[in-house]
Amino acid sequence: VRSWSPARAGRVNASHRACLIARFGFIYARERLDAETLLRGFICDMETVQRIIYIAAVESFCVAKMAFWKLKVNVKETLALNHTGPESLEVAAVDYIARHKDMYNVCQSIQEVVCSLNANPKIPCPPDIDFFLIRTLIRELCCLAFSMQTLIPPLDIALGVDGEVFNRTMYFRSCDSDFTVPFVAYHIWPPLMENGSVIVKGEAVTKR
Questions:
Q1: Spatial CA neighbour of 43 closest among 135, 114, 137, 128
Q2: What are the pLDDT digits (tens) for 127-180?
Q3: Which of 7, 76, 118, 130 has minimal Cβ neighbours within 10 Å of its Cβ?
Q4: Between the CA of residue 203 and those of 56, 86, 87, 153, 179, what are the distances in Å?
């Protein structure tokens, strides 16, 4: 039986956190670009492609967080029958999920994200486009977002709004941006946040 200690839990959490933050960067650098390449085979407009990927990232986090919340409710109900500590029931539930990530039905989350993309009115693209084309990106983002909920505190992304004032503490400007424009035309990648603080900057486009 594994003993629980705050010091050990803190070290494990810090190491896991660092790995997840690095993975967020890898997805941005690799899977995101792979998804761009796949979509460009069907959609000529680069702005539309980048919008699709950004929306897919946001939806993946939303869907994964909801799946985690539902699973945590069920785990807490089960553990409450015999829970005696020393950690709180909340911490015990999160720790249990962290050690049994196979409980997460990522295939269902992928399906939900694809359905959201199909129903999103902000995506002007050919009606025959199959968003399962970028399922690798969606899967990676869903799994990452789910794992980030097992951290204490959890990591999350910030949601951007077209037309908002550009915030240089949260975003990098894309290379094709107009650097004299103070407003965001659209977002390419969301920033990663922890307790309201930016951990990794996102990317946005500023144009007239």
A1: 128
A2: 678 899 999 999 999 999 999 999 989 999 999 999 999 999 999 999 999 999
A3: 7
A4: 15, 43, 39, 24, 13
The per-residue DSSP string of 42-111 comes to T---HHHHHHHHHHHHHHHHHHHHHHHHHHHHHHHHHHTTT---SS-HHHHHHHHHHH-GGGS-HHHHHH
Q: Among all chains, which residue has been given the structure tokens 């492609």?
A: 49
Domain boundaries in the chain? 8-154, 158-207
Plot region of 105 (φ>0 → left; ψ -120 to 50 → alpha; else → beta) = beta
What pTM was computed for the model?
0.90
Residues 137 and 123: their CA atoms lie apart, in Å, by 18
